[in-house]
């Protein structure tokens, strides 16, 4: 599914805009308490999602079937959950630790699925 590559890249760009906006707010306010949130929006949301998109573009056969679609949703649900959880935690709401923890397991599950996708079959 060629479409999947551009879907990942479109999501990545949105995460970049959110992450950079938060970075500018942190710099302008000189309040860096949300730095870990900013880190993970940019590195999980922008960098990792863009890499997934580029890998699916470079090896289109990897994007065939249901598993890559499941990968897309696991990553996005996980990253959005982690971003929301981290933001709320670093805003002082420690009751959101479980949300962040569960979301990070979605992210890990997505990466394990990506490992299966990358290792199975032939990449052409
Ligand atoms: C408009 C763009 C950006 C602005 C204004 C910005 C601003 C900031 C600020 C103010 C900090 C806190 C520094 C500190 O507390 O020591 C920070 C940390 C960080 N930023 Fe950005 N940032 C931007 C884009 C990015 C991007 C695109 C990435 C990654 C692809 C990134 C990755 C990081 C990381 C990893 C840290 C944590 C560094 C550490 O903990 O030592 N930032 N950024
Ligand atoms: C399941 C996914 C992940 C979890 C649960 C996780 C968790 C954490 C935790 C607990 C910290 C320490 C934060 C602190 O000291 O306040 C951290 C820091 C960091 N993580 Fe992650 N991380 C994940 C994925 C990633 C990925 C994929 C990247 C890069 C592509 C990344 C880049 C960083 C960086 C650069 C820092 C240090 C900068 C900072 O403290 O803001 N993380 N992460």
Amino- and carboxy-terminal Cα gap: 14 Å
Largest sheet: none
Give the ordered list of helices and strands.
Answer: HHHH
Shape: globular
- What's the average pLDDT? 96
Q: How many structural domains can be distinguished in the coordinates?
A: 1
The small molecules bound here are: protoporphyrin IX containing FE
Strand content: under 5%
Strand segment tally:
0
The number of helices is 4
Structure keywords:
124 residues; mainly alpha; 4 helices
Give structural notes.
The chain has helices at residues 3-29, 35-58, 67-90, 97-119. The protein is globular and about 50 Å long. 79% of the residues lie in helices and 0% in strands. The protein starts with a helix and ends in a 5-residue tail after the last helix. The chain has one domain. The mean pLDDT is 96. By secondary structure, the protein is mostly helical. One protoporphyrin IX containing FE is lined by residues 35-36, 39-40, 43-44, 47-48, 104, 107-108.
Write a concise synopsis of the structure shown.
The chain is built from four helices and no strands. By secondary structure, the chain is an all-alpha fold. The protein has one domain (3-119).
Show the helix and strand layout.
Layout: H1 3-29, H2 35-58, H3 67-90, H4 97-119
Helix pairs in contact: 1-2, 2-3, 3-4
Bound molecules: protoporphyrin IX containing FE (2 copies).
One protoporphyrin IX containing FE binds at residues 35-36, 39-40, 43-44, 47-48, 104, 107-108.
């Amino acid at each position: 599914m060629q479409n999947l590559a551009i879907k990942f890249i479109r999501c990545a760009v949105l995460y970049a805009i959110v992450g950079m906006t938060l970075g500018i707010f942190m710099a302008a306010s000189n309040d860096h308490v949300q730095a870990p949130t900013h880190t993970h929006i940019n590195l999980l949301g922008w960098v990792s999602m863009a890499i997934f998109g580029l890998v699916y573009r470079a090896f289109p056969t990897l994007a065939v079937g249901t598993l890559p679609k499941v990968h897309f949703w696991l990553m996005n649900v996980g990253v959005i959950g982690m971003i929301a959880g981290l933001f709320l935690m670093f805003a002082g709401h420690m009751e959101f630790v479980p949300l962040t923890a569960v979301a990070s397991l979605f992210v890990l599950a997505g990466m394990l699925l990506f490992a299966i996708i990358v290792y199975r079959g032939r990449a052409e």
